[in-house]
Amino acid sequence: MIQDFLKHLFPRVVLERNLRFSYTFCLGGLAFTAFLIMLASGMLLLVYYQPTPERAFSSVLFLEASVWGGKYLRSLHRLTSHTLLILILLHTLRVILTGAYQRPRQLNWVIGCLLLFLALFEAYTGYLLPFDQLAFWATQTGMELLATLPFGSFFRSLLVPDEVGHGLSLLRFYALHIAIIPLSVLLLSFLHFYRVRKNKGVLPYL
Length: 206
Prior knowledge:
Layout: H1 2-9, H2 27-45, H3 56-66, H4 70-98, H5 106-128, H6 133-147, H7 152-159, H8 167-198
Helix pairs in contact: 1-8, 2-4, 3-4, 4-5, 5-6, 5-8, 6-7
């Protein structure tokens, strides 16, 4: 799988017609590039962020005010996250409009939907980390909405066992945002690109 993933990203031979802009607009590749930028910028932000209710907000202020390039780095991370969501949504729309979810690509369609869900969940978990008033109340509203869904109370208790704004809930959002979700996205992306290559690349589906 990893070998096919690398071949998909760095092919030995590329047909000339595949270098032209087409109906795909390389949206999947652009989304993955945005994800890699988020990984790189997020790793640098980890150096200064402190995931505790007492220090989270002040560490963000210190990053923006006292660290050279810190404000730019945080802005890059945030704007890239918005770009990633837009690109994935456009990619999903393109797949729907071209019928690329049909046989024999049903499995890759399911993988793509999982990637879309994980990207949205990644954005949600990252929203709490600055720990300002906007982050607190937005997360609180999201948790209340989650509790109204079937099994929502169970998932809410997993995410915020000690209520939004307390130490354990912040730590769980932090672990999800920096490790669990990114690793899941990376593994599913490997599988997604592998299935694209196994299904004969990105030829027209109509």
